[in-house]
Structure to design on (227 residues):
């Protein structure tokens, strides 16, 4: 069945540093892939998505490329800000359903 | 931007008590969900609901759980007799259709603490 593995946190960075949060998946076929973000005290928000292989999702300076060769969907940002401090979740759907499987979440802490 | 709203944001209850968590999905959405996240663990699917009935449920969603759409706007999760292990953040979610890749919108969550 489909599954997702996400790097453990926390990830601690200084402002303007480069960010990578790794996500790899196993899946039947080529499902859509998602990154959700949870800011402190808030709900889960869709950050970006990619609906097919080789697609690049992007939003708020974050990017992730759907790579079927390496079954990965790593999240990257060139220059993080303190306001990016949050928990980031990689997700994909169960096969033939509309429910999501989430990774364990990676906490990002950015210091000035 | 329209949003999913949940109440209460935090509830403490005694073991064995009934709890109802409330959600107002986005108004034109047709598919509704509950997920939960036990502290330090993954976000897990509980149940999906469409056309006034459960369309899918997980193994977690046993007879102690039920969902209801009592009117045109609310979507509730009831836990009949809470256990300590029900302590978690419960997320309500909705979306307008099942098109692959379509966005599921989540609420801010309701923290349930069972003591």
């Amino acid at each position: 069945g489909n599954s997702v593995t996400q790097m453990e946190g926390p990830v601690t960075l200084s402002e303007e540093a480069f960010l990578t949060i790794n996500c790899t998946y196993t899946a039947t076929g080529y499902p859509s892939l998602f990154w959700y973000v949870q800011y402190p005290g808030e709900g889960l928000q869709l950050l970006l998505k990619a609906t097919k292989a080789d697609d690049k999702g992007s939003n708020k300076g974050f990017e992730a490329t759907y790579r079927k060769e390496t079954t990965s969907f790593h999240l990257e940002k060139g220059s993080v800000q303190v306001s990016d401090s949050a928990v980031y979740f990689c997700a994909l759907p169960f096969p033939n359903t509309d429910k999501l499987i989430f990774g364990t979440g990676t906490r990002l802490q950015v210091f000035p | 931007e329209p949003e999913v709203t949940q109440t209460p944001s935090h509830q403490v209850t005694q073991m064995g008590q009934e709890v109802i968590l409330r959600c107002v999905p986005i108004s034109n959405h047709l598919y509704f969900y509950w997920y939960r996240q036990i502290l330090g663990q993954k976000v897990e699917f509980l149940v999906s609901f469409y056309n006034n009935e459960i369309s899918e449920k997980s193994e977690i969603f046993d007879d102690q759980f039920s969902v209801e759409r009592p009117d045109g706007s609310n979507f509730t999760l009831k836990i009949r007799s809470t256990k300590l292990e029900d302590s978690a953040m419960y997320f309500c979610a909705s979306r307008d259709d099942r098109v692959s890749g379509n966005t599921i919108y989540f609420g801010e969550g309701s923290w349930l603490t069972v003591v």
About this structure: The CA atoms of residues 14 and 115 of chain B lie 5 Å apart. The longest strand of chain B covers residues 43-50. The mean pLDDT of chain B is 92.
